[in-house]
């Protein structure tokens, strides 16, 4: 089966992303179309992007980058679990994505967003532009959780029937795109030649 990573995009202490991500991973496992792994950005402890080279070159120098690269490279598809910070995605998620390039190519991505009345959808809309710049395929079907605190209890996050149905629709479509994009993932383009630091740049 294709490998799906459910990525918890918030690293803030007390975040709701952890129980929501755990629910999303369970829903994906019950769906049955993917080999599912829950990936928590907080466990990778990535600093603000500190690689000296361009991500397209893939010439990583730090152990944390190599570890993150290996994990992302394993996946065929992603579900990002994200809140909305100031009408956009959390900085930790944008930073984690910016570390890499080749590892994201031609992989479809779905979203589980949460928040207040807007249900985190503005975060998703911003992130879709980032995803397409990395040649990922953000699918239209999403799981949007409005007024998220009403779904939280002593047992963690509890989804209602509409959210469960939305999850199934998203995962069905995500699986279709995962299968359709497999030939592109197996044959990615060669990385573009990048000028070495200090080398003269042709102006044409």
CATH class: Alpha Beta
Helix amount, in percent?
25-40%
In CATH, the architecture is 3-Layer(aba) Sandwich
Radius of gyration: 17 Å
> Mind describing the biggest β-sheet?
6 strands, parallel
How many discrete domains? 1
Full CATH superfamily name: Flavodoxin domain
Strand tally is 8
Judging from the principal axes of the Cα atoms, what is the shape?
A: globular
Average predicted confidence as pLDDT: 93
H-E order:
EHEHEHEHEEEEHH
- In DSSP terms (H or I, runs of 4 or more residues), the helix count works out at 6
Structural summary, described in words:
The protein is α/β, with parallel strands linked by helices and 204 residues long. It has a single domain (3-186), classed as Flavodoxin domain (Rossmann fold). Helix content is 35%, strand content 17%. It contains six helices and eight strands; from the N terminus they run βαβαβαβαββββαα. The protein has helices at 17-31, 63-73, 91-98, 121-133, 161-180, 182-186, and strands spanning 3-8, 35-40, 77-82, 108-114, 137-138, 143-145, 152-153, 156-157. Strands 1, 2, 3, 4, 5 and 6 form a six-stranded parallel β-sheet that branches. Helix 4 links the parallel strand 4 (108-114) and strand 5. Helix 1 (17-31) packs across helix 5 (161-180). 37% of the residues are buried.
């Amino acid at each position: 089966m294709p490998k799906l990573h459910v990525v918890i995009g918030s690293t803030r202490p007390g975040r709701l992303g952890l129980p929501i991500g755990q629910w999303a991973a369970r829903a994906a496992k019950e769906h049955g179309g993917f080999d599912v792994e829950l990936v928590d950005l907080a466990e990778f402890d990535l600093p603000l992007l500190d690689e000296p080279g361009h991500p397209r070159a893939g010439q990583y120098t730090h152990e944390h980058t190599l570890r993150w690269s290996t994990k992302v490279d394993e996946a065929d598809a992603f579900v990002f679990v994200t809140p909305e910070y100031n009408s956009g995605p959390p900085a930790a998620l944008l930073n984690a994505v910016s570390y890499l390039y080749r590892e994201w190519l031609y992989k479809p991505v779905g979203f589980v967003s949460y928040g207040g009345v807007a249900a985190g959808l503005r975060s998703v809309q911003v992130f879709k532009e980032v995803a397409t710049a990395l040649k990922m395929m953000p699918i239209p079907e999403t799981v949007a959780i409005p007024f998220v605190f009403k779904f939280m209890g002593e047992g963690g996050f509890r989804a209602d029937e509409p959210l469960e149905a939305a999850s199934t629709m998203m995962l069905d479509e995500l699986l279709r795109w995962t299968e359709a994009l497999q030939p592109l993932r197996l044959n990615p383009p060669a990385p573009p030649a990048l000028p070495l630091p200090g080398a003269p740049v042709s102006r044409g």
